[in-house]
Amino acid sequence: MNELSIIPFDHLDQFSRLTKEAKNDYGLWADCITALMSATRATIAEVTAKHASLIGCSIAQVRRKWCEWNNGTEQFNAGDWRILVNKRTAGADWWDTDRAPLPEAFLDFWHGFCGKNQRCKCLTQYRALLRRLARWRRGDLTQAIPGYKTPPPNGANGKHPAGWSYRNLMLIANRPRKAEMALHTIGTAAALRELPPIPGTRVGARFLEWVIFDDVWCDRKVVVPGYRSAARLLQLGGLDYATGVYLHFGQRPELPADDGTRERLKERDTKYLIAAILERYGFPRDYIMYLILERGTATIRPADARALYDLSGGRIVCCYTSMEGTLVVAWDERSSGNSRGKAPLESWHNLFHNESACEPGQIGKDRDHSPADVLGRDREANYLHDASMLISAEAAIQNPKSKIQNSLIFPYPTLEQAYWKTQEIIDRINARPDHDLEGFEKDVLQWRIKGELDWKQPGHPSLQNLIGRCDDLIEWLPRRESPIERMERLSSGINLDRLPSGILCRFYDDSHVIAKIKGISFEFKRDGKNYRFLPPSIDQALPDGTELCGYYLWPHAEHIHLTRDGAYLATWKRDTKISRGDTAALAERIAQKTAQLNTVMANVRRQRIGEIERREQELQQNLKAIEDAGILPSDPNPHNKAVTQVACTPTAAQLQRAVNEVKAEEAERKEHEKILSGTSRRSSQSEGGTEALPTGYAISEHELEEF
Q: Does pTM surpass 0.70?
């Protein structure tokens, strides 16, 4: 039988996707099935053994394949050519096509359903999927499965719907992807590790174009005056990506706070570090300086980033690594470091740890590699601290100028000693020529006079005097360019700007906030307190919803200076509460409020002038129609509010007369009471027997309801 004769025409494309090895195996199995179909009871054993030898499998395997061909499998019906395909050698293209068609909505549901399992066990979720299908079939509509309007029936095998086999759901095209599962079960940072990294190179980068910031735990402890226990040392620094130079750093010990927490690096430390780098180096004038920050410790608020952007005229831009997701699944994620976003600095930290591993105060890179004597050193530091306090107190009594406490030798360095030792290590790393950093020059020549031990740098001043006169006494040695030399080379000829000292000082001290205009006010909240700023007048209000950057002096915040895209817009005053006893301030605020209201009313009248004119014409026409009908007097008494207010309906005159009668009876009753009490004063009555209402009286709604 021709091996293609049993393949439907619309399956030929799928057959063409098989590998050459799989096609050869399929041809052998097709010949085997053809021979078995024509074999008799007497020859079937011989045919089975013959083709088992040709295929290279056991007789039992041939019998099993023959049974599958006649009865079908879990995935394919009887007589389907795909039963004969060797799935092990079929290839990736086969797995992309060898699947039952499934609704996209169901596949999305299946991927999310697998993501609910924290251990990423899809087989467990597959069993749960079949249980959910059974509950839906029993009438529980809450267990409906997306992609199907009604519960799908079982397929040919009778175990599950067509295409719902676990094997089919775990094919390459149907199975949940690793990145998606990591995002479901862990978070964004774990998903990023499953995605291919973004390749980068420092070739072509310019000095101060990319500056990366990150914090690091030093593997050392220090003793801090005023604290009994030695403290772990934390460090925050910035690395120039183009040159590999560690530009500047700051350190802070991990100290206990009064509330039981630990005082560590803060946001202001990052602000001060950025300001120190800008004060020392400046920023490029001809291209943008990008500050790469994280979203955890080594970061600044978006408002401070906007302030830097504004102060530099748009040449300092802060970028944030993708450290955490925002409502990716349903909840906010905890902060988790993304080392790929700052890989050069993470690599530098590894070198820094290695270089400082022999310095005093080492505690090991982690708990498993911590020296056994750390506990003893901690106790010794505590005892020496107590002794230094006693010695200090005794020496202060006997000799106030004595410094005997400084003679104690602690097992850990002081904070100042650790700082200068760190500076020494950083200078050594910045000047190292033995590295394999990409983009660095490889033929930097260092020289020395023959017989000397130390090699000198090319820029040494004595070299100019020797070249041309003592060339035969000079020997040269090529080496790779160091980071500090690369920085000097790339920074030469670059125009650098510096923030004015006054503005830089304000960046240290001021506070910045980004918020939107709400109504006519600029509002934000800090330390649980609400701040609201208003424009001087309604005409100076800004459009509702406009996002602005506000500069204010903390903690007073009496005024705020508003900018947008680096341009100054306005200065607004804070809206504060006024005491009822402060009549002058209250009168000023009322006058301001009245002026704002009048401005608003004038603006509204101007905006709706056509509608107002039309409404006035309608009122004039209605009044004229009422006058012509005789319901409203042509010249009503302006003081008779009762007549003016109720004469707008056909029964107004009748209601007015009825109310007048009620009032007359009430007045007559009161008059009789006055007569009985001896204090009666009669009043004239009208000729119609009813008493007119007092001038300015108006019928209330309550009186009309009672009537």
A: no
